[in-house]
Prior knowledge:
- The structure holds two protein chains of two kinds.
- By secondary structure, chain A is of the alpha+beta class.
- Chain A is built from 24 helices and eight strands.
- In chain A, strands 1, 2, 3, 4, 5, 6, 7 and 8 form an eight-stranded antiparallel β-sheet that branches.
- In chain A, helix 3 crosses helix 9 and helix 12 crosses helix 19.
- Chain B is mainly alpha-helical.
- Chains A and B meet through helix 2, helix 5, helix 10, helix 14 and helix 17 of A and helix 1 and helix 2 of B.
Amino acid sequence: MILAQISFVDISIVLLYVFATAYLGWLGYRGTKTTTDYLVAGRKVHPFVMALSYGATFISTSAIVGFGGVAAMFGMSLLWLTFCNIFVGIFIAFIFLGEPTRRIGHRLDAHTFPELLGRRYQSKFIQVFAGLVIALFMPLYGAAVLIGGTEFLSTAFQMDYTAALLVFAVIVAAYVFYGGLKGVMYTDAMQGTIMFVGMTTLIVYTYAKVGGVVAGHQALTDLKDLVPSSLTAIGHRGWTAMPQFGFGSPKYNLWWIVVSTIVMGVGIGVLAQPQLVVRFMTVKSKRELNRAVGVGAVFILAMVGVAYMSGSLSNAYFAHHGALFQGRVIKVVNAEKNHALLQVMKKSPGGEWMDAIKETGKDGKTLASYEQAVHADASGKWLPVAKETSDAGVVKEGVIVPVVLDQTEPYLPEKIGPNQIAQGRSISIVYAKGVSDQIIPTFITTAMPKWFGVVFLLTLLSAAMSTLSSQFHTVGTAVGRDVFETVAGRKADAKANRTIYVVRIAILLGLLVAVGIGYYVKKQQFMVSIIARATAIFFGLCASTFLPAFVGGLFWRRMTRAGATLSMLSGFAVSAFWLAFVKMPECQVIGLVKKSLLADRPNWPVVDPLFVALPVSILVAIIVSVMTSPPEAAHLRKCFPSLHKVHPSVRAHEERKGVSC
Amino acid sequence: MLGIQDPIVALAYVLCIASTLLCVVYAWRNWNRGDETVETDDVKWAKKEDKVEEGL
Lengths: 661, 56
């Protein structure tokens, strides 16, 4: 079932949602519920609202569409990322980082993440550098969010991808420019509620379609011998199993992709996300953070837990309810379970069976698909489709899909065997034409009722709007406050006006870059989720660059300006080097090298930059801080007034300088 | 366990639910803990934050 063209009712519902969003934003604005009201005038933010607002900012279309599609390919091992999102992103972030961030942010009068770092280390360079990193790389994450919504819009409503991208970008840009930047919590909360309802409905339907919780998992487990050979070669062992672990062989690649890039990169990277860290400063006390922990965790489970489970289980759905493929059996994979590899064939108008053929470029992109006459030997037996590689590197081969053979006539007599015409249903990635970002949209449009398509569109619009507004809010403040004002100076009225223009131009440019990336990647047709890759790059870059300086600044009084500066520079430099010269396929996309510098050393090219850069930046932070003069005691007392005792080394240093502590 | 082939993946499934419950129990037990009086720094920060937001 396809949702077909957008109907009048669909458009009406989307418009109603947009007006409701605008109305709530206007109410929030008119009610002058400013930060001062919340913190000082005693107006209370319900913890439910605060947690949903945080969660809606945290979770985007990237997590739902991009990582959901990755889960459909790699399986339930992605649940370790869900666990990290809840335990690290909520429990540790709220309970251990939230309160210290709020306290030190207020004491140092910091209003952005770069400003927090800059003032903690009394360094304009740190503030400007952090602002530049955010301004330059946040649009990449913004593009991931945009692509997630666009893929659904184009797949579900059969829109041209470019048109869908523009429609989605215009709706989001209008929201961002007309009020979204103010981050009205009640608007975020409404969007969070829609997301919660949409995703909860999705998991209930998904489990119902695959026969229940345990039966659904078992059905997925039973499909393990249908994993494509390209994935088993890198260590895929089934959708309910971890990939094969080890180091030094390509058969361990998947373990390193799942664990180093997806689970660790995104799971740890969330701790240093600038747009999330500043949220801690807007709460009144630790009590609000304590209260928000419960709702936040349930929300995250309902978002990413559902996305990854639905993505994985979509394989079980398609294998039993997907559209049928017809062709000849070329290999029986599991006779007991009726699993086989099928050479896809189609009947010509004259009733003759034709082989489905595809031509693939050197970069793995499908260049052409067509049918050709079947070759047979002298006895009339069909011959396998020969795999041919042209001088230009174009590979021409038959379309072979793994299937669960259908038990009904006319194609399946008593027993199956090679070269026998049969029909069967395949796995998610086949129905998504090999593009993982299209798996969730394809699953929703195929498996869910028509009305749910509109609900899911609202879910994705909500997820995109709440995340993009905070992303571009952060870009705006990074460029305007952290870079422009810090470099050009602030206070003068003329400068203030110029800052507003700089902020607006920065946000507009950021949006244009995000849309440009969204357009470019579709032309490139990357096979493995560009959404997940772009998100992981940004999260990993933030963690490697900011995390030691941020956490050290909160908890380690001995951390020095030099330590923080060099830690940030080394974390950023190692990440950038790894992405440009080692990490596949990122280094090929960047284009400075034709293949990874470590292409001959298996597993290194798939290890995430975070795995190398974060230890480097932590070590640099510690070593340089210990080797350099400690911060002034007066500054430390300002940062940590409740700590009456300053660090002994700081005291010794002050005494040497003749300053009383 | 739970129809899941690999115990490590089953553990992740269980830990997702367990960590959510941990957060819910933590929030419930600490519902009224952690309230603090608003200090001068907080007031100053909040007023400045409103100005920064207004500028956007």
